[in-house]
Design a protein that fits this description.
heterodimer; A: 82 residues; B: 244 residues; 7-stranded parallel β-sheet; 8 helices; globular; binds NADP nicotinamide-adenine-dinucleotide phosphate
Chain lengths: 82, 244
């Protein structure tokens, strides 16, 4: 993916996260952690994954979510499937 | 009342499911019902109500369940109220119970409920609103000779429903269980008059329930009024299961 594509993908990712987690866009940074910085519970993370699956037309297996704790990690998982 | 809400009732073609669908229709909901053998007739309700939407669906098929939700969403909108009433019995003593008989009952009564609830909760989560009611049975907690498969499936609904109630509670979605006793439907008609009167004689209220009496409890659980009730098991059993 080119840098431009990557940025566009992050924008789309950010839109999903803002909508599902109901947090301001500036909080969606690669380092932000779901549980700590974004105060998202496990159900919200699942909802976000479902929204991302729909937006990016990908499928994420339950096992792939293990260890995914930050926005950056989740974004990497998404882009690895594009 | 649950006016204007979209409801899906599995097993809404007959018995308790149909009585519930008609009651919700009367309460102003837009109601879809699943059917396999034949859709209910008539589809029209009292003046001013929306006709029932019959959707063909065998709940043991994941594809058909998906299609039923899609059709309901296209015709009525996202499902806000889900009532799982589709269910079967296949009675015999454990020693004579085949693997097939065991699996068929668990598949229809329990696994299909997992499937429909999972599909419905996706949209309910986004809407931050939902009402789910599972039709269990008094025998789930009381036990019943000849019904190990059925009782296991119905007790399973209690554990399933209460776990789901906890999972979804933060999103304004309630999940409750109704546990009927003996109800006058096709399911009990097959037992024959003698067996039925033996059953009802054990009921403190000394009679079987009409399906509408179960529907009344469901209608209340899905109403705005019952917004603070979740994870409950409501007996509608004439007192048969008291203490359980
Ligand atoms: N009657 C009682 O005394 C009693 C007591 C306690 C609990 N219950 C529970 O109440 C619920 C309704 O029972 P009922 O007395 O109304 O029974 P019923 O008159 O025999 O109706 C059963 C309903 O379930 C549907 N159904 C069965 N298997 C299905 C499948 N694989 N896919 C889709 N639909 C399916 C039937 O659809 P079709 O028309 O297509 O066959 C029908 O609408 C059941 O869960 C039952 O266990 C009943």
């Amino acid at each position: 993916m080119t840098r431009v594509d990557n940025e566009a993908a992050f924008e789309k990712f950010k839109e999903c996260a803002v909508e599902v987690l109901q947090v301001p866009a500036e909080k969606i940074t690669p380092a932000a952690s779901f549980a700590g910085d974004l105060e998202a519970d496990s159900l919200e993370v699942v909802e976000l994954v479902m929204a991302l699956e729909e937006a990016f037309d990908i499928t994420v297996e339950e096992s792939e979510l293990e260890g995914v704790e930050t926005i950056g990690q989740a974004f990497e998982l998404v882009t690895s499937k594009l | 009342m649950s006016e204007g809400r979209v409801a899906l009732v599995t097993g809404g073609s007959r018995g308790i499911g149909l009585a519930t669908a008609r009651r919700l229709q009367r309460d102003g909901c837009r109601v879809a019902v699943t059917w396999r053998s034949a859709p209910p007739a008539p589809l029209e309700g009292p003046a001013g109500s929306e006709p029932l939407l019959p959707v063909s669906c065998d709940v043991t098929s994941p594809e058909q369940v998906e299609a039923a939700f899609k059709e309901t969403e296209e015709r009525l909108g996202n499902v806000e109220i889900l009532v799982c009433s589709a269910g079967i019995t296949d009675d015999t003593l454990l020693l004579r119970m085949s693997e097939d008989s065991w699996s068929a009952v668990i598949e229809t009564n329990l696994t299909a409920t997992y499937r429909t609830c999972k599909r419905a909760s996706q949209k309910m989560l986004r809407a931050r609103y939902g009402r789910i009611v599972l039709i269990s049975s008094v025998v789930g907690l009381l036990g019943s000779a000849g019904q190990t498969n059925y009782a296991a499936s119905k007790a399973g609904l209690v554990g399933f429903g209460r776990s789901l109630a906890r999972e979804l509670a933060g999103r304004n979605i309630t999940v409750n269980v109704v546990a009927p006793g003996v109800v006058s439907t096709d399911m009990t008609a097959v037992l024959g008059a003698e067996r039925l009167s033996a059953l009802t004689s054990a009921v403190p209220l000394q009679r079987a329930a009409e399906p509408e009496e179960v529907a009344g409890a469901v209608a209340w659980l899905v109403s705005e009024e019952a917004g603070y009730v979740t994870g409950a098991v409501i007996p509608v059993d004439g007192g048969l299961g008291m203490g359980h």
